[in-house]
Amino acid sequence: MSDEPQQPDQQPDPTSHEKPEPVEPVEPEVRAELLTLRDGLSAVIETEEALRAYCDALVAGTGPVAIDAERASGYRYSNRAYLIQLRREGAGTSLIDPIAFESLAPLQEALEGTEWILHAATQDLPCLNEIGLYPTTLFDTELAGRLLGYPRVGLATLVETLLERRMKKEHSAVDWSTRPLPQAWLEYAALDVEVLVELRDLLAAELVETGKDDWARQEFDYLKTFELPARVDAWRRVSGLHRVRGRKALGAVRALWELRDSLAEQRDVTPGRILPDSAIVAAAQAMPLDREALLSTKGFHGRGAERYSSRWVAALREVDEMSEDELPTRAPRGDGPPLPRAWAEKDPVAARRLTLAREAMTALAEERNLPVENVLTPDFLRRTLWSPPSTRHGDELIDAVVSQLASHGARGWQIALAAPVIVTAILQADADTTAALDAAAAASAETPPETPPETPPDSAGLSADPPAPS
């Protein structure tokens, strides 16, 4: 018989005298047990009296506090929290409607001095800060998973991997600004904090075991000051912008985006619900200057296409009258380095530095079982390599790189790992460039200069020059 295992769709050879080997039955996949609420779910807190009662319970509780927030992404313009979920040992789980309160100061007071457990803190901290909630210390289960090298760090995946429980997913993209919130949505939201304490404890133990607990502490401390970055030239993130040609068309994208953003903010709806990016690009490419032409433009559609048609046309007419200097350029203006693909043309030595550093950083990340972007923020790496310190003297260079990385916001553990890599890349790129120049100079010196060919004699053996006049 063949040594290869029999495939399910293969039948035994009826002419064979050998007894077929028995096929092992395939065990059905055993799915993890569905996560459920241990303590049930109490009514949403939306009165001052109920809030004070739960704050008292939080103060009497023990251990860290699991916290989550739900926003209405995809439905509302604002990033505000429309539901807050909390759980602490001894206090249980409660859901708070922040829209019902002018101030959540009692909650902030009750949480003072506690450790917050969040998953993907950068998503929730801005909206929690907006309503006056700030952590004393925190633990981010998603970031901990990244530092430990887990390939997938979504909450449901980590819960299933480490706690062998399966989380519901059917209400992940609902409109949390809906009032009243359906009971099924509330139960789904409460599950997000149900096992965060247990998950935190397992990840914390693994961080200690792998020697990464101090890295995590530095990262969590840094997160406490996290703020959403200011939007600079946000219109350039319009999907399909690469299809737009010419400064006037770019100006049209900018004008339509800014008008849409203003309307969306006034109505508190997500901008795409007024006019999709594809409609902005279509109008910018066609540049229709009257309402009829705009509405007949292929691809121009959306809930606000016709409703605000006169305003879209007015914006396009204004762009049409702009001078060249008033229109945006293809490349965004900024204080950072150019796109990496342009480095080789603009500064070959910097391009060599970047290539060397990227290769070394990738190897370092694999060695430490980390995502390379967590070893050092890619923007910090590019900025340092594009404008490195001028010195090339040993300790002076390493000290200057360390200072430069720290000024960008790199944490101490990242600097300790990345600074030697960057210094090596700087010095190696300089050496490679010098060697290439020396080799080119040597090759030029070894090549004899070309001499003009001698004038061949004519067929009679005489000079081909014409005879001098007699």
Would you mind describing this structure in some detail?
The protein is of the alpha/beta class. The protein has three domains: 33-223, Ribonuclease H-like superfamily/Ribonuclease H (Nucleotidyltransferase, domain 5, 2-Layer Sandwich); 235-326, DNA polymerase, domain 1 (Orthogonal Bundle); 340-436, HRDC domain (DNA polymerase, domain 1). The chain is 47% helix and 7% strand. The chain contains 18 helices and seven strands. The strands form two sheets. Strands 4-3-2-5-6 form a five-stranded mixed sheet, sandwiched between helices. Helix 14 packs antiparallel against helix 16 (378-386). The longest helix is centred in the last third of the chain and has 35 residues, at 412-446. The model is unreliable at 1-23 and 459-464 (pLDDT under 50). Residues 15-27 have a biased composition (Basic and acidic residues).
Proportion of helical residues: 40-55%
Structural class: alpha/beta
Poorly predicted ranges: 1-23, 459-464
CATH architecture of the largest domain: 2-Layer Sandwich
**Strand residue percentage:** 5-15%
CATH class of the largest domain: Alpha Beta
Record field, number of beta strands:
7
User: At the third CATH level, what is the topology name of the largest domain?
Assistant: Nucleotidyltransferase, domain 5
Radius of gyration: 33 Å
What is the CATH H-level superfamily of the largest domain? Ribonuclease H-like superfamily/Ribonuclease H
Q: Biggest sheet, in brief? A: 5 strands, mixed
Contiguous helical run count: 18
Order of helices and strands: EHEEEHEHEHHEHHHHHHHHHHHHH
Domain count, please report it.
3
Overall mean pLDDT score?
90
Shape descriptor reads: flat
What is the terminal-to-terminal distance?
106 Å
Protein name: Ribonuclease D
GO biological process, one term: nucleobase-containing compound metabolic process
GO molecular function, one term: nucleotide binding
Pfam families: DNA_pol_A_exo1, DNA_pol_A_exoN, HRDC
